Amino acid sequence: MTATLDRTQVAPTRPAAQLTGVAKVFGTGAGAVTALTGVDLRVEPGEFVCLLGASGCGKTTLLNLLAGLDRPTRGTVDVATDRPAVMFQEPALLPWLTAVRNVELPLRLAGVGRSNRRGTANELLELVRLDGQARKRPHELSGGMRQRVALARALAATTVDTTSGDAEKGGRLMLMDEPFAALDAITRDVLQGELERVWRATGTAVVFVTHDVREAVRLGQRVVLLSSRPGTVVREWDLTGTADRRALTGEITDHLREVISTHGRAA
Q1: Quick one: 153 and 171 in the same domain?
Q2: Quick one: average pLDDT of 137-165?
Q3: Residue 131 to residues 127, 148, 150, 202: CA-CA distances in angstroms?
Q4: N or C: which end of the chain has fewer CB within 10 A?
Q5: Domain extent for 187
Q6: What is the pLDDT averaged over residues 205-217?
Q7: With contact defined as beta carbons under 8 Å apart, do 83 and 157 qualify?
Q8: Cis omega (within 30 of 0) on the bond before 230?
């Protein structure tokens, strides 16, 4: 049996996520820090967008705004689903719960019945190729396996559709903040491939933060480069149908180096 999520959705009439003229300022007065300014970004349903930029340029702040964990100081943030999923560098699994119960957690919090949530959780573990590990607790799993459980849990959150107005659905949305950064190179490479497979199987829109240009070019349909702080979109690359991604990797790396150099002078 091959596990897949139900991709049947009403044809969307709005983006999965959109930021228009967004600015975010922390603090007030002389101590205020402007993290983002004038950010315009549109993510289409099912699109995979990678965000690149120097450390401290506001990438995580942007994800927090999309997740509804913070509000912009100026501008508007529109997310089609009221339950975007978030995946961080650390899997943040509950150590006393088994893998399947960790995946069930967002479904349980949403009031999904026991049998339905268990069935969905098992299906998602199969999707991330952990169907034989359902009863193991996090300490019994490798780092890569724990991240697979976290991915399955994030996907579980996207299956809970509590939006109103079905005709305006923009689809599922997953926000990923350097989820593979703490893993060794081989495990990271494997999980990049797994994420790409799962994304294609589920049709979930993804906003993926990374410092790794190769990772961005491998995974993304579009790569978005943010300036040094205050962060704003300075360049985008459309990778759909691109044959020579190696050349694009070099081009994007050059632009990222310019941004990092500017960030260093600003600091």
Answers
A1: no
A2: 81
A3: 8, 11, 14, 17
A4: N
A5: 22-82+166-267
A6: 93
A7: yes
A8: yes
